[in-house]
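Appendix B: complex inputs.
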Amino acid sequence: MVYLTRKCEFSASHYYHNPEFSAEENQRIFGKCANLNGHGHNYTLEVTVKGAIDPKTGFVVDLKELKEILNREVIDALDHRHLNKEVPEFSQQIPTTENLAIAIWNRLQGKLHVAKLHRVRVYELPDLFVDFYGEA
Amino acid sequence: MVYLTRKCEFSASHYYHNPEFSAEENQRIFGKCANLNGHGHNYTLEVTVKGAIDPKTGFVVDLKELKEILNREVIDALDHRHLNKEVPEFSQQIPTTENLAIAIWNRLQGKLHVAKLHRVRVYELPDLFVDFYGEA
Amino acid sequence: MVYLTRKCEFSASHYYHNPEFSAEENQRIFGKCANLNGHGHNYTLEVTVKGAIDPKTGFVVDLKELKEILNREVIDALDHRHLNKEVPEFSQQIPTTENLAIAIWNRLQGKLHVAKLHRVRVYELPDLFVDFYGEA
Amino acid sequence: MVYLTRKCEFSASHYYHNPEFSAEENQRIFGKCANLNGHGHNYTLEVTVKGAIDPKTGFVVDLKELKEILNREVIDALDHRHLNKEVPEFSQQIPTTENLAIAIWNRLQGKLHVAKLHRVRVYELPDLFVDFYGEA
Amino acid sequence: MVYLTRKCEFSASHYYHNPEFSAEENQRIFGKCANLNGHGHNYTLEVTVKGAIDPKTGFVVDLKELKEILNREVIDALDHRHLNKEVPEFSQQIPTTENLAIAIWNRLQGKLHVAKLHRVRVYELPDLFVDFYGEA
Amino acid sequence: MVYLTRKCEFSASHYYHNPEFSAEENQRIFGKCANLNGHGHNYTLEVTVKGAIDPKTGFVVDLKELKEILNREVIDALDHRHLNKEVPEFSQQIPTTENLAIAIWNRLQGKLHVAKLHRVRVYELPDLFVDFYGEA
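Resulting structure:
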């Protein structure tokens, strides 16, 4: 049983706003992130899969297949996008790093044929990241 | 004569669009950056100043003053902002990394009392950066 | 259940010395770290908290509150300090990275109102770090 | 109970080839890695040990001893080597990052006197790494 | 006049050997690098171009074109290759980082249509790099 | 003509204090750095040499010799030291990053046999560094 992690990056825009909050609450709770013009980040995504090594290849997962899945399910949908305006998960949900990690997990879950999804880590900034392991 | 460099970071949103180009030209030239919903980056700014060392302090520049100038002239104006919509330099100019480096130089130039501005470096991505030395 | 990690940095001085050891033992066991003049490091601290996401904010923890707690409980006490001389935990204990991780855990434990402290990671050098999960 | 991690680096050469596969299969499955002239990497190794802190030293492990073990068991055997041609584990096995992590675990297992081996992490590239915890 | 730098990476194998030296000299001068089985590195290449900004695009160089040139002239020729055995420049010359930086400069020189090549930087290791500016 | 840069690290302690200043001035000018108990840093040193490539070796400088010089002249004198108390240059001079870069230049100048010293860069923090080129 080994764990393999692949990193990739995407650049996106977002803002934090809860329509149930007053303007003052949005400002107090979300600070500079409440600016409705949006701001953005270079997100770094680390996807970890686990499984047994195929003795014929030495691989726990086919890296080309993993890359295709990541590109199709995540990067194409999020890169150079406005998360609030263009990504369905965030039409009703605030695109925090926490919610983004879960959204990416849900996009990847069930797509791998061999190894099993173990962890999704999302860095919003070099000094801020969130991990999700699929735990309820 | 020594050169001192301070790094700082800001997060902003932007898109690339030239109204003189057709929609097809904007798409062909700017690719994913042409998305008018905007996308964003964690920009890293390196500001280099040069000068002689003050023998009483051992400093070429007062770091607290340098930080105040950077915050007042650059970070407050750019961080968590949409460059196209909120930063005057980009109302008529495309906010590429090249133009951003020059805009930051112009904001800082003449604000330091002791040392001299030497270089502005802006990273848009970890693998893409622009340097400007004030050369015409 | 998500895990959120915040990094921060502090610079401190320390030395390694056990008064129960002879001078030779201190030198043999602690090497260059035994120099009583002290030496120092840029420590990097990663604090991981875990919890459920508040659906109203999308946050597992209020980042402003987390930052205030980190500053008040850890950074103000350790940054630009001599660990042996100024930090109470190390008046009777050697300020190794191991003991420092536990001291930081103890300073943070019970201070968070919502999420739960999960891990304290301390880097003494870029290639040396210690993790503590509160395990006895 | 604390976990201490030490990083080190080595540079090595390898290629991926399974003699039971046809030339076409080797090319299709291993792509550019199938080039029998070999290519190489700067590998980064992170070794994590866990244990109780010795109250006399504040150490979970003697770092000098850990370094000697890493050098003797791993670095001397792998650094500036061709993994396929010079490292016995890979005479019959493909030197993927997965197999390399297990080989390093097996070289280190049982060599530490105090702390216990917890994890071996091997980076083949900055954006690709494998973890092994000794799990069957 | 601005300077734009793009980073990219390639993995390659090499060894150091001068056939005019005795075996003892090769070993003494080149140390572990003299191993004829070869070893390898993840090389990081930084290419800096300089020029004026096109006011219509805000670009000093078309990044897509720059990437195509880098891939065609450098990455396709060096990535996952054995420098001594597969790259013509090194059939008669030792593939040190110094010679590699010059070889890459010569491959790129004259290929850009707008901006001018300013500097080639090659990292062989994170703590060792060479710069070449085309100076005789 | 190529430029080769080698990085290395050392950990040291220091404080900032000018005996000609009042206690209030020292506190106002140097802030937390004025704490006479000292604090410390992991310094990163980059030394750049320039010269012609020796066609027999492909080297601009013998890396083993460069490392020996760096260790003897710089690392042995500064690593795990208290700069104010143990390094002669700072008995009368404040050990700022600026003065440290010049001190290291002076220690290295004239020690290389082949290549020429071009630049000394000292990082006190990941986001603060000083360059010295030997310019008066």
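The mean pLDDT of chain D is 97.
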